[in-house]
Amino acid sequence: MPTSMEEALKTDPPCLPRACAIQDCLRKNNYNESRCTDLIDALYDCCLELYKRDGPGANRTCCPKEGLLKLKIKQRADGKGSQGAEVHQTRRR
């Protein structure tokens, strides 16, 4: 993952390394979202900066739409983000 916001915003598409880091984390942690919250927050921060910089029409391949992003950030701040996520065990057949 890029070490700075500036680096993350310069990638094509913007914020891609942060989105990929989430996928890697989820895969390594058996898709337990609660183990990847810092990376999710980092992506949301990147996306928020992208919208501030480029406006609502920004290249958002790796980001939720601006309205949804703001809702997700508010939910996480209210404690309803990943803490509300449930991990379901599946049975192998």
Describe this structure in words.
By secondary structure, the protein is mainly α. The protein is built from four helices and no strands. It has helices at 5-10, 16-28, 37-54, 66-77. Helix 2 (16-28) packs antiparallel against helix 3 (37-54). It is globular and about 35 Å long. The mean pLDDT is 86.
Question: Tally the helices: what do you get?
Answer: 4
Secondary-structure element series: HHHH
Q: Quick check: average pLDDT?
A: 86
Distance between the termini: 37 Å
Major sheet size, sense and barrel closure: none
Portion of residues within helices: 40-55%
Q: Domains counted in the coordinates: how many?
A: 1
Q: Please tell me what the overall shape is.
A: globular
Structural class: mainly alpha
Number of strands: 0
Low-confidence stretches: none
Cα-atom radius of gyration = 14 Å
> β content, as a range?
under 5%
Family: Belongs to the CMC4 family.
Pfam family, one: CMC4
Keywords: Disulfide bond, Mitochondrion
GO cellular component, one term: mitochondrial intermembrane space
